[in-house]
Amino acid sequence: MTRPAYLPDTFTLALIGSVALASLLPCHGQGAVIAGAITNVAISLLFFLHGAKLSRESVIAGATHWRLHLVVFASTFVVFPALGLLLAPLLSRLLTPDLALGILYLCLLPSTVQSSIAFTAVARGNVPAAICSASASNLIGIFLTPLLVGALLATHGNATPSFDAVISIVLQLLLPFMLGQGLRPWLGGWISRHRPLVGRVDQSSILLVVYTAFSAAVIQGLWHQMPARALLGLVLVNAALLALVLALTTLASRTLRFNKEDEITIVFCGSKKSLASGVPMAQVLFAGHPVGAIVLPLMLFHQIQLMACAALAQRHARRPEGDAGASADIA
Predict the structure, then answer these.
(1) Segment 21-29 mean pLDDT
(2) Predicted pLDDT at 87
(3) What is the distance between the alpha carbons of residues 104 and 86, in angstroms, rounded to a whole number?
(4) Is 222 helix (H, G, I), strand (E, B) or coil?
(5) Which end of the chain is more exposed for a tag (fewer CB within 10 A), N or C?
(6) All domains in the chain, ordered by first residue
(7) How many Å apart are CA 197 and CA 203, to the nearest integer?
(8) What angle, rounded to 10 degrees, do the helices at 10-24 and 291-317 form?
């Protein structure tokens, strides 16, 4: 039976279903622990498969692609904070002081790791560069974000870098990737013959991340912490901020003449903000403040970026093989 033209693709429908399921039946307690463990296993498997799939030459090229990494770093720690400061007068009129502070705070956070790389893989971007760039952004952000918060928001108190986060990134992402690289001589051919398997792992890991992240947000009172009117205003501000950064990273990558695969990596790695890093940091940096209201913009932004980037990744994935010059309509 032919799919009606007005319906989105299967993956987008699955994403919508994940959000609806998390809103109606969020995982909590022991269920959340189990779901988190399954998600971690799926992400580790994803990195293992990509490690076994990618040639050593492509990995080295991705790690040494300094122009790309510099653009992602600038987007995460220069462009985002500048936009937050420029929008501050408008935010003070549209949002409560705590929500406006939350928007500025999310602009100072590092990029995500798992979803940035998974979306890059789905969109057939430069995966080795995405792994290096997103991981470096997250690790640097552990130290840099508290400094930016202190300089731009004039908060009091010191943030202690979470070395557990560093160890988690190494064990969950880099170690499986390196293991896959080591086993590539034996597994590379089999994975090349079963390419749809990697694609299914990519998409499944994203669905799990969306469900677990949205469940945590719902449990923390995502839909109950403010009136519907204030929530709508916050959604519009977050969506506008994300759209602006997506447009700027796309424009920058094309102006600097990156190829299509590099452009995809820059857009996905340079437009994300990490919920996993942001919430623990906020509890330390904003001790004595209403942390729930401050991190609510980040929780919403996280969900919006997952949904928007999933749709964008599917659009990139549908481009013809070898079409390095095709451009995607960000609007």
Answers:
(1) 83
(2) 86
(3) 10
(4) coil
(5) N
(6) 10-315 (1.20.1530.20)
(7) 10
(8) 160
